[in-house]
Amino acid sequence: MDPRNLSDRHVQQQMQRKVLQYLRDENYPQISEKLVKNPTKTEFARMFEFIFQQLAPDFTLRKIEDEMPRLFRTIGYPLQLKPSTMQTIGAAHTMPHLLGAITWLIDLIQMTGEISPQDLLLANEEGDGQRRSLAYGYMVRCYKKYCSNPALGFNMDNYKDENNVLLQLVEEREDIASQEAELDAQIVTLTEEITELHKDK
After folding, report:
1. Domain enclosing residue 21, as ranges
2. What range(s) does the Kinetochore protein Ndc80 CH domain occupy (predicted)?
3. CB under 8 Å to 62, separation ≥6 — which residues?
4. 101-114: per-residue pLDDT in tens?
5. What is the dihedral of CA 87, 89, 93, 97, to 10 degrees?
C-alpha cells in the first residue's frame, strides 16, 4: 500500500512540481504542465525514457506499457503498475499513479548521486553488466532504508551494512571470475599438450 495519498489534489500538485523541476534541472528540451497533467502516450514515454537514462544512460525505451512495469519491479518499486494503468496513460485517474512511480524514481536517482558506487556503474571491463546489476541492487537497498527512516539522510556512514553487502558480493563475483579464468588457462594448456602428443605420433 502506498503511504502517499495519491488521490489528494495537494499531493498530486507536489508530484507535478517535483517532476517539472527535475526536468528543468536536467535540461529536458520540452517542458510544459501538459507533461504531468494530461500527456499523450508518446510524450509520457519520451519523458520517462529521459528520466530513466539518468540512472542507466544506455537505456532505450521500446514499448512503455510492457517495459515500464517490468523496470519498476526490477529496481524495487513497492507498488504494481497495472496493465489498465499503462493502457490509459494521460487519463486523469491514471496520472497520479504514474507520477507516484516517476517521483519515486527521481528520489532514487537523486540518492544515487550522493551514495552511488560510481566505480561500479562506470566500469568498462568485462562483466560490466553484472557490476551494474550489483550497483542497482545496492542503491535500491539504500533507498528502501532511507524511505523507512528519512532522518538517515544521504550520509554514507548510515549505510555501512549495505556497503558491506555490496563489497562482499563484488569479492565473490571476482573470485568466481578468477577461478573461471584459471580453469580456462588450464584447458588451453591441456589442449596444447594433447595436440603436441598427436604430432609426435
Report:
1. 1-114
2. 2-113
3. none
4. 999 899 888 876 66
5. 100
